[in-house]
Specification:
Largest sheet: 4 strands, antiparallel
Helix content: under 10%
Number of helices: 1
CATH topology: Immunoglobulin-like
CATH class: Mainly Beta
Order of helices and strands: EHEEEEEEEEEE
Strand content: over 45%
Shape: globular
Distance between the termini: 31 Å
Length: 125
């Protein structure tokens, strides 16, 4: 898993969302900017402002990768498209974490959890 550098993240660039994101074993660090009017992320106006983390999840041995923001609003893992990109709205870096599961033929081959406590989160102006 790496920080995304894709130019199209639901209508935003990675640089619009974050700076210096690093993914290490068990932790993600860096800075999440405060974003407003992110209509590409959600049609719900309450979800269009905040701090967003863009990640690229890849595993050449997997045929499916799921990502879950543990402690988030969705409440279940999301299966990624073939591009491996996901944008996550982080609302509480202290209580939330990210769980990534790679599987092949329905069997888990990798399961990693990442703390978000090392993120610097910019507040609303």
């Amino acid at each position: 898993m790496t920080a995304s550098t894709s130019n199209d993240l639901l209508g935003k660039a990675a640089s619009d969302l974050q700076e210096d994101i690093a993914v290490a074993p068990g932790a993600i660090t860096g800075k999440l900017k405060y974003v407003t009017g992110y209509t590409g992320f959600s049609g719900d106006t309450a979800e269009q402002s905040g701090n967003y983390l863009a990640l690229l999840c890849e595993d050449e041995d997997a045929d499916a990768i799921t990502v879950e923001l543990v402690g988030g609003n969705v409440g279940h893992p999301v299966t990624l498209d073939s591009d491996g990109l996901i944008v996550i709205r982080v609302t509480d870096k202290s209580s939330q974490s990210i769980s990534v599961v790679a599987s092949k033929d329905g069997k888990v081959i990798t399961h990693k959890t990442y703390s978000l406590e090392g993120l610097t989160v910019v507040s609303a102006p």
